[in-house]
Amino acid sequence: MKSSKVLFLGIVALVSGGAFISCTPPIEGELTPLVKFQDYVYEVLLVSPCWSSDGLNVYFTSIWDSLEFTRTYRVWCVDVKTEAMEQISTGNISIVGIDISKEDNLCVTYWGELFHVLDAHTWTELVSLEPQASGVSYSPRFSYESDRVFYYMYEIPSGSTYLRKVNLKDSTDEVILTVKQGGYCDPGPGDTLFAIHDTIYNVKSNKRIPIGIDLPSTGTVNWNPADPSELLISTGVKHELYIFDLETRELTELNVKATNSNTILDAKFSPDGKRIVLATKSIGDAVCYEKIWIFDPVK
C-alpha cells in the first residue's frame, strides 16, 4: 500500500525486537459489500476469501450447518466489478480453506486426506498428493515466490507444530520449521520469512520478529504481494485490521468499523497491493450477517 518498495535484503536484517502501534490516525478508506448473506435458521460462514491472479475476481468458501447437523461446503467465484457470483466446486466436499496462486490462477486446498491443486477457472484437478504427515491442522498456502510450491502446518499431540514444504515439481514434502505455537501461516518473501500467528520466522537465520500484538487464535496474517515489507493482520474476534511494516516495525490500524462486525474471519491484499478483501460475521437480534467486503484505502 506504500508508494515505495523495500528491498528484501532490508527485510531480513530485521530479526529481533517487537512492534509499536502507530500514533497516526487509522487509515481511512471506502468499504464496499461484495457478498451479503443474512441467516435466520442456518449457521453459515463465508471464509477464505482470495483474489484471482488478475485481481478481477474473488474466490471464497461457504460453510452451511443444516438443521440435520450436516455441513455443506461450496467454493464460489464473484466478479468484483459486476458482483456476479457462481459456484465453481462440485459436490459436497469438506473444503474449509483455499488459496490462489499469484500466477496461473491455481487453487490449493485439502479434503479427503489429500492435497488438491486445481485450475480455479474450471475447477479441474491438476494434482492430488497425500501429505507425508498426518493431522494437517491448517489450510495449505502457496509460496510467495512460486505457484509450484506450497506449505502446510500440522500438530502432534505433544503440542509442537511443524511447517512443511511441498514441491509440486518432484512431489517432495519436507519439514522446514518447528514452532511451539501454531496458528494461521502465510509464506513470505524469498521463501525465507514466514508469518505464523503473531511471529515472523526467518528459516535461514532461525531468528524471529514478534509482530507485537495480542493475536487470538482466530487471527490471520497475509503478506502484501506487491510490497514484501507489509503484512496484513486481522484480529479475528477482536474485529480489528492492521498493517505491520517490517521496515519500521510499526502497526497501523485500518478503519473498518463500518462493517459493524463481531469477527473478521480473514483478510487479504489484492495482487497489486492496493485493495483488501475481508470476510466478516456479525450477530444481532438472533440474526447472523455474513459479508465479504472490498476495502479501498484513501490515497
Question: Can you characterise this structure?
Answer:
The protein is mostly beta strands and 299 residues long. The protein has one domain: 7 Propeller (Methylamine Dehydrogenase, Chain H), CATH 2.130.10. Helix content is 2%, strand content 51%. The protein is built from one helix and 25 strands. A five-stranded mixed beta sheet has the order 1-22-21-20-19, with no helix packed on it. Strands 2-25-24-23 form a four-stranded antiparallel beta sheet, with no helix packed on it. A four-stranded antiparallel beta sheet has the order 3-4-5-6, with no helix packed on it. The longest helix is centred in the N-terminal third of the chain and has 5 residues. 37% of the residues are buried.
